[in-house]
């Protein structure tokens, strides 16, 4: 599995003897996401990636006035943050690209930031490219490794392209002074909170008033679940078209997920057929996961699905079709009717 | 009484020619990219975008004045525009780059689309841009958001439902977000990026393919638009992803459960 690479520090020694008009060492602005004040685990992975740049990391938290205080309390304990900015306004709840962009634009102008970092989440994917456009900066999506050369102010990233069927190594040179990137969170460990720290400099930034916002929020409906969150679960049980209906999907997968303490995922075919909710889709166009254990039930293993799960530590496949492509990536495969095999697995795992 | 032209809706649909989604990708031996000597087709998300534009016209009728497709790419990208015309776009714009030119970056593409929008002003402008949420080759997923930023327009990404009110110049868009759905009300002009579940694109029929051959494609160069499409990010190399070691098949559930327990991935 890809883990973040530490940057090479050898060339940094030269920096001390030179003087630059602007600081050559990295200073990242980390967009920290939270839900009602609870930090998103993806942002913690993005913090690890930001630290790999080898310089300072300033976090920024936006949201409703009643949530931001709690989020700041949680974030100030994070290891690796050097500073924390926060800004609250009713117009940041929920954050809209049209309202948050002017704020980030203001924070990023006249400052020493060299990078802007976030998780590759649906919120950050919507906001960051818009901010980058305002600043005429380049953005790199869904990176799996980061290495910064401070002496040249160049950053090298790796990122999957073509649904993960090729890995591109790209370099943002010094001619791109401000580098935006989103982080594939399964490629970086989550940064830890440290009770002893908490002396991070916290600074409030006044919300930027945007007159006549062209977009307004109408409603949000989240899928409620007591199960672990799909993106960060250590075990995932996933179902495909072979589950036949929403009823059999739930009746078959839920007992297995319960006994394993696993999250439930789905292939695009299962989602399109209405067996499972959109937010459970694993793949190029859904969530990218890398759990300890991924159990694929009745999933053939199309390229687009593999793109979302092939970095899992252990892949188990149960499929009737012995020639299904999923068996080429599965560590353990069982050719069987899943409606017989899964209940039997549940029974035997309970023992 | 006919509505005044200002009330009519002009839709622009940017499309991209990509390696077909079903193709097996091979990295070239020089590690400079992937072998592109394979079947290409329209980026699947863009197909959904064209389909949605056509469906909006089917719902709103005469209130939609035009649907134009635009692409930025080498000569062969004209095929992709013909596909868009066959699905139901009225006209197309091809910003042609040399076959040997490197693939432009989202920022360059968005600037080119901005310039195209500027040129549409005398024809009533553009009220709605519908485009895919990402191209399945570079998987960047940035162009729509960058364009909305450059234009200072409203944006709605990852759309799974679009309801346009042409009179009020508004659209309600349902978006797929992490964990569920979100609905926004957006004032036009607006940039929407499409998610998979927005619609099921139709197959172009033979008569519509024949008709598409007669529809106009305007050819432009980046110089005509005053944009520089040179990439700012250097691609150092492209490599194959690490291969997974071929797994083993087990004969029954007992062996499967034993393997899980052996690997320590099962809670005890």
From TrEMBL, chain A:
Membrane spanning residue stretches: none
Q: Where does FAD bind?
A: 241, 267-268, 281-285, 298-305, 319
Look up the record and name the cofactor or cofactors this protein needs. Answer: FAD
Q: Which InterPro entries match?
A: DHS-like_NAD/FAD-binding_dom, ETF_a/b_N, ETF_a/FixB, ETF_alpha_N, ETF_asu_C, ETF_asu_C_CS, Rossmann-like_a/b/a_fold
| The record's free-text note on cofactor binding | Binds 1 FAD per dimer.
Listed A to Z, the keywords are: Electron transport, FAD, Flavoprotein, Mitochondrion, Transit peptide, Transport
Its localization reads: Mitochondrion matrix
Domain Electron transfer flavoprotein alpha/beta-subunit N-terminal as annotated: residue spans: 28-213
Q: Does the keyword Transit peptide apply?
A: yes
One GO MF term attached to the UniProt entry? flavin adenine dinucleotide binding
GO BP term, example: fatty acid beta-oxidation using acyl-CoA dehydrogenase
Keyword Electron transport attached: yes
Gene Ontology, cellular component aspect: mitochondrial matrix
Which SMART domains does this entry report, sorted A to Z? ETF
The entry's family comment says: Belongs to the ETF alpha-subunit/FixB family.
Task of the protein: The electron transfer flavoprotein serves as a specific electron acceptor for several dehydrogenases, including five acyl-CoA dehydrogenases, glutaryl-CoA and sarcosine dehydrogenase. It transfers the electrons to the main mitochondrial respiratory chain via ETF-ubiquinone oxidoreductase (ETF dehydrogenase).
Record text on subunit structure and interactions: Heterodimer of an alpha and a beta subunit.
Protein name, as recorded:
Probable electron transfer flavoprotein subunit alpha
Whose protein is this, by species? Schizopora paradoxa
From TrEMBL, chain B:
UniProt record similarity statement: Belongs to the ETF beta-subunit/FixA family.
Residue ranges spanning the membrane: these are none
Q: What is this protein called?
A: Probable electron transfer flavoprotein subunit beta
Native source species: Schizopora paradoxa
Xref: CDD domains: ETF_beta
Q: Where is the Electron transfer flavoprotein alpha/beta-subunit N-terminal domain?
A: 32-229
A Pfam family (short name) is ETF
Q: Which PANTHER family does the entry link to? A: ELECTRON TRANSFER FLAVOPROTEIN BETA-SUBUNIT, ELECTRON TRANSFER FLAVOPROTEIN SUBUNIT BETA
What are the record keywords, sorted? Electron transport, Mitochondrion, Transport
């Amino acid at each position: 599995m890809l883990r973040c690479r530490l940057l090479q520090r050898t060339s940094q020694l030269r920096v001390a003897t030179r003087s630059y008009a602007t600081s050559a060492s990295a200073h990242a602005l980390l967009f920290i996401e939270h839900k009602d004040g609870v930090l998103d685990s993806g942002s913690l992975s993005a913090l690890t990636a930001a630290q790999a740049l080898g310089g300072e990391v300033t976090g920024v938290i936006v949201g409703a006035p009643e949530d931001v205080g709690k989020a700041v309390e949680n974030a100030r304990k994070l290891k690796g943050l050097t500073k924390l900015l926060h800004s609250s306004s009713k117009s940041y709840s929920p954050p809209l690209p049209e309202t948050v962009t002017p704020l980030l634009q203001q924070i990023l102008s006249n400052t020493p930031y060299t990078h802007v970092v976030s998780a590759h989440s649906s919120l950050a994917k919507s906001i960051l490219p818009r901010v980058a456009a305002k600043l005429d900066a380049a953005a790199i999506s869904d990176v799996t490794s980061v290495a910064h050369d401070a002496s040249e102010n160049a950053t090298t990233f790796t990122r999957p392209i073509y649904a993960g069927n090729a890995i591109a190594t790209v370099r943002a040179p010094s001619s791109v002074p401000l580098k935006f990137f989103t982080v594939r969170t399964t490629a970086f460990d989550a940064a830890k909170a440290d009770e002893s720290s908490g002396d991070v400099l916290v600074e409030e930034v006044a919300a930027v008033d945007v007159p006549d916002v062209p977009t307004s929020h109408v409603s949000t409906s989240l899928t409620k679940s007591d199960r672990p969150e799909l993106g960060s679960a250590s075990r995932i049980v996933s179902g495909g078209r072979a589950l036949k209906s929403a009823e059999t999907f739930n009746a078959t997968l839920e007992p297995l997920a319960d006994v394993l303490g696993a999250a439930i995922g789905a292939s695009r075919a299962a989602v399109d057929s209405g067996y499972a909710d959109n937010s459970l889709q694993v793949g190029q166009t859904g969530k990218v996961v890398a759990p300890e254990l991924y159990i694929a039930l009745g999933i053939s293993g199309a390229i687009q699905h593999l793109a979302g799960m092939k970095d899992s530590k252990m892949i188990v496949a149960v499929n009737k079709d012995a020639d299904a492509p999923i068996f080429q990536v599965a560590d353990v495969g069982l050719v069987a009717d899943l409606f017989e095999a899964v209940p039997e697995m549940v029974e035997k795992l309970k023992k | 009484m006919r509505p005044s032209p200002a009330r009519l809706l002009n839709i622009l649909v940017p499309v991209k020619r990509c390696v077909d989604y079903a193709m097996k990708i091979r990295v070239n031996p020089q590690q400079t990219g992937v072998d592109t000597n394979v079947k290409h087709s329209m980026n699947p998300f863009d197909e959904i975008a064209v389909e949605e534009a056509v469906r909006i016209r089917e719902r709103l009728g005469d209130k939609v004045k035009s649907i134009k497709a635009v692409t930025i790419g080498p000569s062969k990208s004209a095929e992709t525009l013909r596909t868009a015309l066959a699905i139901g776009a009225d006209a197309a714009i091809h910003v042609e780059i040399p076959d040997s030119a490197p693939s432009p970056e989202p920022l360059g593409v968005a600037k080119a689309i901005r310039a195209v929008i500027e040129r549409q002003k005398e024809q009533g402008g553009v009220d709605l841009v519908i485009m895919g949420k990402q191209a399945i080759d570079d998987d960047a997923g940035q162009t729509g958001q960058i364009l909305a930023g450059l234009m200072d327009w409203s944006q709605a990404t990852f759309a799974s439902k679009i309801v346009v009110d042409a009179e009020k110049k508004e659209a309600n868009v349902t978006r797929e977000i992490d964990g569920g759905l979100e609905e926004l009300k957006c004032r036009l002009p607006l940039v929407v990026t499409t998610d998979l579940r927005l619609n099921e694109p139709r197959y172009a029929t033979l008569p519509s393919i024949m008709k598409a051959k007669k529809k106009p494609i305007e050819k432009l160069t980046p110089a005509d638009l005053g944009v520089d499409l040179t990439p700012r990010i250097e691609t150092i190399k492209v490599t194959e992803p690490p291969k997974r070691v071929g797994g083993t098949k087990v004969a029954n559930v007992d062996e499967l459960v034993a393997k899980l327990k052996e690997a320590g991935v099962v809670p005890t």
